[in-house]
Amino acid sequence: MKPPTITPSVSAEIFTDPRTQALLTHTGSTTWLLERLLDERVNVHTMEVSRAAVDRTCPEAAAPLGLAAAAPVLVRRTTLAVARHQVSRNLVLAPLGRLVWAEHLLRSCAMPLGPHLPQSHERRPLGVGLDAWGPGRAAVSRSYLVIDPGSAQPALFIRETFNPDLFDPSTTGPGEAAPVTCP
Question: Is residue 72 in a domain?
Answer without folding.
Answer: yes
